[in-house]
Write a structure and sequence with these properties.
The chain has 112 residues and is mainly α. The protein contains two helices and four strands. The strands form two sheets. The chain has a two-stranded antiparallel ribbon. Strands 3-4 form a two-stranded antiparallel ribbon. The structure holds zinc ion (ZN).
Length: 112
């Protein structure tokens, strides 16, 4: 061992030439042994994956909320629309007595 160094993570001696910079906040200013570096690297990969998944979840939640708002708006529009249709329907019944039903039906077809 040319340059014995104490690992900032596990406390074991290792050759400084084999060491790497620590990846955690606690060890980032120190050199750690290769074994601890590999463990920290794997942990960091998992943490990064978890962060990505949480971000995707957050984006999905925002998209679901946006879609729910859109559905609500569409449902409100449909309800207003239904009211209009009911009014048309009432008009249609009145017109039917006058024999003008077909004309009115054509007019409705243009809109719906
Ligand atoms: Zn170590």
């Amino acid at each position: 061992m040319e340059m014995p160094t104490v690992c900032a993570e596990c406390g074991e001696l290792f050759d400084l030439l084999d060491g790497r910079g620590g990846l955690t906040h606690r060890t980032s200013d120190f050199t750690i042994c290769k074994s601890c570096y590999e463990k920290q690297y794997q942990e960091k990969q998992r943490v990064d994956t978890i962060r990505e998944l949480l971000e995707k979840k957050e984006n999905a939640s925002s998209e679901i909320e946006r879609l729910m708002n859109e559905i609500t708006e569409m449902a409100e529009w449909r309800d207003e629309h239904r009211q209009n249709l009911n009014e048309y329907s009432m008009e249609l019944k009145k017109l039917d007595y006058k024999g003008e039903k077909d004309d009115y039906h054509e007019e409705l077809e243009r809109y719906y």
